[in-house]
Specification:
This protein has one domain (4-81). It is elongated, with a radius of gyration of 14 Å. With 83 residues, it is an alpha+beta fold. It has a three-stranded antiparallel sheet with strand order 1-2-3, with helices on one face. It is built from two helices and three strands.
Length: 83
């Protein structure tokens, strides 16, 4: 089992990276309820892009994956609009 301080540091790093790297006007939302936690990506048009569910990943890993998905989707939208 990982050290609690390491888990917290990894989570803090992932959140800071998300704040730096999320595409303009995208929102990453962490939802927590009893017995569950999940990440949602919200597009600039306020649509839920998807619920990021990675049950075998840490929360930090899930945040990083969500940011990567948002970047990829934003690039695809930009490419479509430039045609």
């Amino acid at each position: 089992m990982r050290n609690t301080y390491e888990v917290i540091a990894n989570l803090e790093m992932a959140v800071n990276e998300a704040a730096r790297d999320l595409p303009e006007q995208w929102i990453l939302r962490l939802n927590v309820e009893r017995g569950a936690a999940w990440i949602e990506l919200i597009t600039p048009t306020c649509n839920v892009f998807g619920n990021i569910d990675m049950p075998d990943a840490t929360l930090a890993e899930t945040i990083k994956e969500a940011v990567a998905l948002a970047i990829q989707a934003a690039h695809e939208v930009a490419a479509t609009q430039s045609k």
